[in-house]
Amino acid sequence: xxxxxxxxxxxxxxxxxxxxxxxxxxxxxxxxxxxxxxxxxxxxxxxxxxxxxxxxxxxxxxxxxxxxxxxxxxxxxxxxxxxxxxxxxxxxxxxxxxxxxxxxxxxxxxxxxxxxxxxxxxxxxxxxxxxxxxxxxxxxxxxxxxxxxxxxxxxxxxxxxxxxxxxxxxxxxxxxxxxxxxxxxxxxxxxxxxxxxxxxxxxxxxxxxxxxxxxxxxxxxxxxxxxxxxxxxxxxxxxxxxxxxxxxxxxxxxxxxxxxxxxxxxxxxxxxxxxxxxxxxxxxxxxxxxxxxxxxxxxxxxxxxxxxxxxxxxxxxxx
Length: 319
Description:
Oligomer: single chain
Strand order of the largest sheet: 1-2-3-4-5-6
Strand content: 15-25%
Helix content: 25-40%
């Protein structure tokens, strides 16, 4: 948008979800980042039939609403009373999320296999966009029941283990806060978080990421993400400044960090492996090595569960 690479495109619907600290290595300030987002809506607004679908619960979203309050296609969504598409009575569990959708006096029950408050907002935005563009509202709501799992976005990688592992792409302070809040709503015994910060990107978000992880978790394990051309040790040092108390671990080797989390997990715990999500590589000094958090996590679970079973067998034999 900032580079003008969307000029000439007709935009029929533009959705604003939220705005949090990211890409500041390019935009430098949040205001400049917001101005870049505004360009999409300015482009859409040239089409009087376009739908401008904006999160009215977000502070930046409300600023956007003020800019386009006279556009006939403005649609607000959220949890607040100002929303045209509003979610109430939200419920979460390991199988997904449900909520009641209120729209112009109608009430519809929405069920989605996706977990977390941010996915409630995403579902509202998707339903509002579909309905705004002419799709049947009830059919759109029904379709949410089979919404596909987005790879690496709060993706559960365990099935019948006594603890759960989720992999998520969260690589900003706000994303970590949101994903941990979503997992806390599932009422685990503890949350163990493995996370890292990318190299050659905004350094100012590293310490806030550690602070967010520490505040939302019971156990924090800081590790490497994609160091790229930066020193992994320096990235870890930058992030560690955000920790405010003892009790966290710093392990540069990401596989070892995941192994420690799995080894430490007990019944009812949730492990979050954050930062890389769907990525199937780790980039170090310009080289991409095969590394998929989902596959590594599954392998660690097999290794640890096999080891625990062997230990139990040995104890039974001694008895």
